[in-house]
Fold this protein.
Amino acid sequence: MIEVKELTKSYGPTLAVNRVSFDAKVGEVVGFIGPNGAGKTTTMRILTCYLTADSGSATVAGYDVIENSIDVRKNVGYLPESAPLYTDVGVVEYLKFMADIRNIPKSKRNERLKTVIEICGLEGVIQKDIGELSKGYRQRVGLAQSLIHDPPILILDEPTSGLDPSQTIEIRNLIKNIGREKLVLFSTHILPEVEATCDRILMISRGQIVANGTLDHLCSQVRSNNRLYVAIRGSEETITPQLKQLEGITDITHIDTENGVVSYNITIDNENDNITEYIFQSVVQNGWSLAELRQESIDLEDVFLHFTSGEQSKNTEAPQASESSVTPVDEE
Amino acid sequence: MKNINTILIKEFRSYFNSPIAYIFITFFLAISSWLFFGSFFIINQAEMRSFFGLMPWMFLFFVPAVTMKLWAEEKQLGTAEILMTLPIRDHEVIIGKFLASVGLLAITALFSLCIPFSIIYLGNADVGTIVCGYLGLLLMGGAYLAIGLFTSTLTKNQIIGYILGISVCFVFWIIGEGFVLSRTPSWLFPIFSYLGLGTHYSSILRGVIDTRDIIYYFSIIGFFLYLSTLSIESRKWR
């Protein structure tokens, strides 16, 4: 439903979006994440026909964003960053205006209004002017506005920014629900949000898509060299050389010695599945005691840093992110 | 057409949702009536010529105040981004906004009708010239509004839009006035005199409605509305 090919856009000398390609289909919630200034907003603006790309093509709902701009706009609901709304109109009046512009027939208008007010939890504020509303409620009005014509595609730019934690959770659940039957593309730089809501992650950094796939998929790419955390009671001088001898350990870093407990970060190579056992046996044989042994879990944050840090070249096994994942990663 | 109408209604309401419309109407009428009636009883003639003569000046300062928010505010609030991603064309937005501002000006003119009514009551006024005067007023006002709307699209700061609006209107008005024309080289004379915003207005005020004058105002309006559309489309230029 969204197909983007080699999209490029620069502002003067700055390349904001650099040959971005991806696609997404209905029923997917796609999280668009990346550091500030990575090109998320620009890409969304191109997809919603607010800006035009310098080169490349994008089709939304089967229509080209330049050739059939009006048809694209009919099929898209868009919430720009920080929900810009007119401040001097009432909530209902604003939504009515949107409904009219969206060509919703008068007979259906009230029904649609009722639906979006209910979905977005606006019942308590329908009497008010938008200017009087708190940030969270404005965000919801913005969301209601994007839903009013029941579009198959929703593009939301940082829909949860500036919301308090409970509002954030509400909006996330909302996105999840909507995403069952629509295509939702939303941007954020809050990582837990992506974990909580997205079927698929598009990671963008410096204008380029650096990763594209499910969370598991991305984590597995990063997990190419695993890390362990080990804390052993004993003396550092004896433990370090012993550990170094173990097969399958590629790197070992001493972190800290506290109350006689020595802790290490250990990088192991992936082939060796039994490394934790070896460590345990070594501890037993040497008469130390094991205080802690755990696999460092890899979360989205690591994935994010991995793909966006630009130091990925250090990592031998790092996927050639910028090249290979430009082509959409298959999900099974 | 329907889209233009929706924008028109929205903009028109927003004038009356905020204090702008009330302040504009009140002060416009108060100041113009005060200036007019100040000399009216001294001259002691039942005619509105001096009222209409005030209008190019009054419009210069009042009209850009009506139009300054039309686009600058959309830019400032960021609402332009929603508006321009709705299934509506750029020129429809511009025309809708322009017509809304014309509506506000027309309502102000409507309120000012108590002046001609009292004059007709007081003496033997020529209704024909008054009707022509109002027509000229709306045409010239439309030209001012179109210029103001254009300058509003150039900036996201309403004050800058306002000052720019005054400046451009002033230039377009002054080039047609006697004290500029008398110092204009002769080859520029017909151009300046034709382009002057007030020239055609004063010919309408004489009670003669010439299609050329009407065409002039419609072309100025059309030209600046076109420029405004280009200006808001410029975000898409590659």
